[in-house]
Hints:
This protein has one helix at residues 59-64; strands spanning 4-7, 10-13, 18-24, 30-36, 43-49, 55-56, 65-70, 75-80, 89-96, 112-113, 117-122. By secondary structure, the protein is mainly beta.
Amino acid sequence: QVQLQESGGGSVQAGGSLTLTCLGSHAPHCMAWVRQIPGREREAVATIHTSRGPTYLSDDIQGRFTISRDNARNSMWLQMNNLKPEDSAMYFCAAKWFGPCNVNYNVDAYQYWGQGTQVTVSS
């Protein structure tokens, strides 16, 4: 069983920055940041694999967010810059050992989830 714990969420004004941290008991091959906006489906914002490059939800996200990981520390981060009100959501750390590791793949395939950390961006 893999346990994941997020931290780093909070409230910021538009244009601000936050860094989310995911600390795990292990570091599965594929790790992702998934967000849940009220009234919408969960969506993977970014993924990162131990041996492949990251993927991002959109060019806009790629231009503002950076996903990274440190396997030795069982940790993953999401650096979020130039935040927008539409980025407001609950952000979850998710992970799985096998299977496709990209934002287009079904988020239900992730085996392990953290409790989530809230990000609120005001205009």
